[in-house]
C-alpha cells in the first residue's frame, strides 16, 4: 500500500524536506558558532553560513521533488 508523496499530508512541519533543511541549518549554525568563538576564525564562520544557506536550498529542492508538505 503505497502513498503518493504529492498527496501525503504532514502536520506541523514534519515533512522530510523540513527536517533535512533544519538539521543541515543547525549544523551550519554550530560550525559558525565554533568559528566565532575560536579566534574568531572568519573562514569557519563563512563556511557555517554557507552550510545554513545550503540547508535552505536542500529544503526547496526536496519540496520540488515531492518530499514537502502541501502549501
Number of strands: 0
Structural class: mainly alpha
Strand content: under 5%
Instruction: Give the N-terminus to C-terminus distance in angstroms.
Output: 25 Å
Shape: elongated
Mean pLDDT comes to 87
Individual helix count: 2
Uncertain runs are none
Biggest sheet descriptor: none
Order of helices and strands: HH
Helix content: 55-70%
What is the rounded Rg?
Answer: 15 Å
Note the main attributes of this structure:
single chain; 71 residues; mainly alpha; 2 helices
Describe the structure.
The chain has 71 residues and is mainly α. Helix content is 63%, strand content 0%. It contains 2 helices and no strands. The two termini are 25 Å apart. 13% of the residues are buried.
Write the layout of secondary structure elements.
Blueprint: H1 16-37, H2 42-64
Helix pairs in contact: 1-2
Would you summarize the structure shown here?
This protein is mainly α. 63% of the residues lie in helices and 0% in strands.
Amino acid at each position: 500500500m503505497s502513498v503518493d508523496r504529492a498527496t501525503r499530508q504532514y502536520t506541523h512541519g514534519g515533512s522530510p524536506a523540513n527536517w533535512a533543511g533544519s538539521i543541515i541549518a543547525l549544523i551550519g549554525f554550530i560550525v559558525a558558532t565554533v568559528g566565532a568563538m575560536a579566534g574568531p576564525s572568519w573562514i569557519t564562520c563563512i563556511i557555517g553560513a554557507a552550510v545554513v544557506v545550503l540547508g535552505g536550498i536542500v529544503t526547496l529542492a526536496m519540496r520540488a521533488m515531492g518530499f514537502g508538505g502541501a502549501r
